[in-house]
Amino acid sequence: MTDCILEQLKSQPSWILFLLTLGFFSTLKFSLSFLKWVYVNFLRPGKNLKKYGSWALITGPTDGIGKAFAFQLARKGLNLVLVGRNPDKLKEVSESIKSKYGSTQIKNVVVDFSGDLDDGVSRIKEAIQGLEIGVLINNVGVSYPYARFLHEVDDKLLSNLIKVNVEGTTKVTQAVLPGMVERKRGAIVNIGSGAAIVIPSDPLYSVYAATKAYVDQFSRCLYVEYKKSGIDVQCQVPLYVATKMASIRRSSFFVPSTDGYALAALRWIGYEPRCTPYWPHTILWALAYSLPESFVDSWRLNFCLGIRKRGQLKDSRKLE
C-alpha cells in the first residue's frame, strides 16, 4: 500500500508535491506547538523555589496579586520580606499568613514607592542584609483611576506612573541582585501587563502601557545578562485578573481570582523569560494576534472610551 501511495505521489505535478510538503510541515509545526502548549500549561512541574534561597521579597503585598503571591510562597515554605506603603495593612497580611503558616518568618518594610524612593530602597537593603533572598516578585504598580487622554493626565499621576512602575521596579531589582550574584542563584519575577504586549495599543492608558513595555524589555535584558550567573529573570504577562486595579470584582473563566493567578504563576517561575501563566489568557492572546491590528485598535479605543465616560460620571457625582 505504501508503494502504491509513493507511485501516485511521483506521478503528480511538482507544484502539487510542493503544496503537500508545505502542508505537511505546517501541520507538523502546529502539532508540535500544541503539544508544547499542553506540556507547559498542564504537565510541566514547577521548580522547587526553596533551591533559590529561603526568603522571598514581594513588593505590593497587601492586596491583589501581590497578596496572593505572599500566601502561595509561604505555602511553599519560603520566608517573606513584605514591602508596602501601609504599615497597618502589612501587619494585617503578616498576621494572616502566620496564622495559616505558623513557621513562616516575615519581615515588613514600609516603603512608599511614590515618595522618597532612595530612602525606601536603603531600608530594603538594610532589611535583607544577611538574608538569602532567592525569589523577588516585583509586583508593585499603579495605573490610571480610569481611562483618559494624555492631555488629561495630571502631573502627579504622570510622575507616579513612571516612578512606581519604572523606577521602583528597577531600583528594587538592583538592590536585590548583588546577593543573588554572590550566591549564583535566584529568581526575579516582574509583573508586566497584556496592555503592553498582547494588544497592539492601549489607548487612553498610554503611559501605563509604556511603563509595562519597559518592564518587559528590562526583564528580557536581565534574563540574558544574568542567565549564566544562575539567576532566572521573567516577565509575567497577565491579562485581566479580578483586582481593585482592574476594577473587576468577580472572577470567571477568562478572569481568574488573584489566588487562581498566583497558583498558576508559581509553576512558571524559573522557565521562559516571558510567559502568561494562566492558560485561558493564552487563548485570548492567540485571538488578539489572529485579528487585524486596526480592528483590535478600534475595539480597544471604543472600550476605553466607555470606561472614560463612566469614570467622568463618577467624578461629577463626587463633586455634587
UniProtKB/TrEMBL annotation:
<dbReference type="InterPro" id="IPR002347">
    <property type="entry name" value="SDR_fam"/>
</dbReference>
<keyword id="KW-0472">Membrane</keyword>
<comment type="similarity">
    <text>Belongs to the short-chain dehydrogenases/reductases (SDR) family.</text>
</comment>
<dbReference type="Pfam" id="PF00106">
    <property type="entry name" value="adh_short"/>
</dbReference>
<feature type="transmembrane region" description="Helical">
    <location>
        <begin position="15"/>
        <end position="40"/>
    </location>
</feature>
<keyword id="KW-0560">Oxidoreductase</keyword>
<dbReference type="InterPro" id="IPR036291">
    <property type="entry name" value="NAD(P)-bd_dom_sf"/>
</dbReference>
<dbReference type="GO" id="GO:0045703">
    <property type="term" value="F:ketoreductase activity"/>
</dbReference>
<keyword id="KW-1133">Transmembrane helix</keyword>
<dbReference type="InterPro" id="IPR051019">
    <property type="entry name" value="VLCFA-Steroid_DH"/>
</dbReference>
<dbReference type="GO" id="GO:0005783">
    <property type="term" value="C:endoplasmic reticulum"/>
</dbReference>
<protein>
    <submittedName>
        <fullName>Very-long-chain 3-oxoacyl-CoA reductase 1-like</fullName>
    </submittedName>
</protein>
<keyword id="KW-0812">Transmembrane</keyword>
